[in-house]
Design goal:
Blueprint: H1 2-15, H2 21-52, E1 61-64, H3 65-83, E2 86-91, E3 97-100, H4 102-118, E4 125-133, E5 136-143, H5 177-187, E6 193-197, E7 201-212, E8 218-219
Parallel strand pairs: 2-4
Antiparallel strand pairs: 1-3, 2-8, 3-7, 4-5, 5-7, 6-7
Length: 220
């Protein structure tokens, strides 16, 4: 993104007098897009460095796992609708309470949902799931997208890995979101798992211990 940003700004500087107002706006819009991408990349790299240096530790608090999923789903409904993707929440009606860093868990789920939406074609489905078991809950994000080739699965949590999927070739995704998600899961004593079938979809999941568990299940 830095090279592209430099190129657009340099063009504006050298040819400003010969460009129309519309062309200048187009170059500025493109430069701004690449500037935002660069900002996200720098921010992610900075956070990864802090994770590696153990400079970030969870600030734990109690919260409802199901309410968090509902809030996140609401945040991404418009994005999903614009992409023609159905976004579902599958969670217990009266959910367990967990103790974790709610901001970190939200960021973990954000990264998984954005990844799922990006790789799911129109008329597909992305599901946010919450399962309960004795002593814990399982968060999961599944999609009906392009899936991951078996030979690429061992590398999905490596930095800058983007695989061979056609959906990843626009340069907007730099292969850091899943690395950060994995680090967050590890900071909470868990592990981020992935199951995928090529051209059928992918499912990421991780566990958290519960404080209070109740029964009931609904899909919205």
């Amino acid at each position: 993104p830095l090279a592209a940003l430099h190129g657009y700004l340099e063009t504006l500087q050298l040819k400003a007098e010969s460009l129309s107002a519309a062309e200048q706006r187009a170059y500025l819009d493109a430069a701004l897009r690449h500037s935002r991408r660069l900002g996200r990349l720098v921010g992610d790299l900075f956070d990864l460095a802090r994770f590696d240096a153990h400079a970030i530790q969870p600030r734990r608090e109690r919260f409802s796992a199901a309410e968090l999923l509902q809030d996140i789903a609401h945040k991404y409904q418009l994005t999903a609708r614009e992409r023609g993707v159905r976004l579902e929440v599958r969670a217990p009606a009266a959910a367990a309470l967990v103790e974790a860093d709610i901001g970190m868990i939200e960021r973990l789920l954000d990264n998984l949902i954005l990844n799922a939406l990006y790789h799911t074609p129109a008329d597909g489905c992305v599901a946010l799931e919450l399962g309960e078991w004795e002593g814990g809950v399982t968060f999961a994000v599944s999609d009906t997208g392009c899936g991951i080739a078996p030979e690429e699965l061992p590398f999905v949590f490596e930095r800058f890995f983007r695989g061979s999927s056609r959906a990843k070739q626009d340069g907007n995704h730099l292969g850091l979101g899943l690395v950060i998600a994995k680090r967050i899961a590890e900071l909470h004593g868990g592990e981020l798992h992935v199951d995928s079938k090529l051209n059928r979809g992918t499912r990421f999941r991780f566990d958290l211990p519960v404080l209070v568990a109740r029964q009931g299940f609904e899909t919205t």
